[in-house]
Specification:
single chain; 440 residues; alpha/beta; TIM Barrel; two-stranded antiparallel sheet; 19 helices; 10% strand
Length: 440
Amino acid sequence: MNQMLERSKTRRRFLKMLGASPLIAGSSMLGSGLATLLNAAPLEEKHFLGWLESFQQSDDVVSSPDQALDVMDFEPAARKAIPPAHFGYLATGVDDDATVRANREGYSHIQIRSRRLVDVSNIYMSRTIFGTKWSTPIVLSPVSAQKAFHPDGELGVARAAKTKGHLMMLSTVATASIEDAIAARGGPVWQQLYPTNVWEVCRAIVKRAEKAGSPAIVLTVDLHDGSNRETLFRSQAVDTRDCSLCHGNRKSGAARGRAGVVSDTFAGYVARKPMFNGLDVSKVTQLYPLAVDWDFVKRLRDTVTVKFLIKGIVTREDAQLAVEHGVDGLIVSNHGGRAEDTLRPTIESLPEVLDAVAGKVPVIVDGGVRRGTDIFKALALGATAVGIGRPHSWGLGAFGQAGVEAVLEILQRELRTIMRQAGTTSVDKITRDYLSLHLS
């Protein structure tokens, strides 16, 4: 009996502590419920505690795509399914991952202004980019080596993009070729470009992509060797698999400025990527050479015969220079926070880039997008489209192609929902008038 009494006193002390919490105090329902409980009989107390427990979220990992309520549900499922080092590669940022978090948190500083009494029976989410009409403004950003997450790899992503009507970009260091990706997509796939330090190799990749039917080349300029990817390094340390078959010798990082698991030579690394098949990569030492500058952009602009975009522009000055150099489009990106620790979210970089280009070229933004409301906010600021990288890779890692399709379906549903709630019947009608900005 004394033990029961002591447990009851402990529970009451805990409930009093809850009552002092700003979260509980701010809720009339919970606050009044606690006040009643403190004077309740033991039976009523037991009933209330059971009711309170029902508010707790389950820690269970989803076991099928249809169980997911939002795209974040796929992250723990992917972590469970993907080998530790591979998941660490997907999750890592720079240093303590602060810029990864900043990308996500940036959207919380923007509020949506909803209009009422608008007929929202029909919602149109299509977006036209360079003359091609896409079902939604959601773009699958390039993610390298996706077979490291699931055997479906990039081809599973391409098939999901086909099913859901999305634009896809393929990484230079993908585990699928541009030809196979286009075949799986059943339509155009944009080729992301790491130029390497060998011009002949760079040009060969561009010409191969153009010949395959890729309508756009996307030069990435926000990645340099040597970023301190602590999350990746820690995950490698706990991965007990023998990785030598795929990665050659495990090195301490000296070969690429702590780039983690690498081959005996960098040329050996790129030689295992389909886009480098048949090329002389003996002199390749870097994916993104330190010497790349605006003269290189001009040389590449003169070489590319399809649309030419730059990915990684985050300032007004560089956006203006890009337009002056004849670039056809920009992607505001900081490589998902995995290239540099600037602490500046891409959604906060977007307005100045848009102001600089003044509508002359389309602008896509990626980094931290997890909700349909995030997509709405980016479009309202003026983005032509919005890219996702980690979310579709979580879906892939957890459930293959079906997981990617589920991620895209959830984002489409959430975007459709907020468009209705805000009173916008088409993507073109989403403007800055629907935002209240609190950017830092």
